[in-house]
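Hi there,

I know you've been waiting on this one. I reran it after we fixed the sequence typo, so this is the corrected version. Both the input and the resulting structure follow.
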Amino acid sequence: MTDKKTNTPSPTSVERARRKLMEQQEGAQRMAEVEREGIALRKNMERLRALRLAHEAEQAATGEAPAAPKKRTRKTL
């Protein structure tokens, strides 16, 4: 009356394991992509900061007043 279990996995468990492995690989790829995007973003911010500081130093050396920021207007509907 005892049922013996076979060592061969069922088709559903094989499919489940395959899907889980694919999801893990896709997740790792997405995390690497997000990290690359973050690095690119920080690199661009550093470049822009250097440009801004150089421009401000140039203005200070020539005695020019820094440009005032533009006033924002609200749009009415």
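Quick highlight: The two ends are 79 Å apart (CA to CA).

Best,
R. S.
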